[in-house]
Specification:
The protein is mainly α. The protein contains 3 helices and no strands.
Amino acid sequence: MTKTDSLINGMDAEWFALIVEAKEIGLSKETILDFLHQNEISDILVKNRQGT
């Protein structure tokens, strides 16, 4: 997948760069996904506590 393909498929260029960098330093796909899911849940909890 090229950078152009990823932008066409809706992925932001910054996200693409972050994921490429994570892979370059040796993080697995699963580690990246776990991190994103943990932070997504944290964001939801924070928003719910704030009443939004």
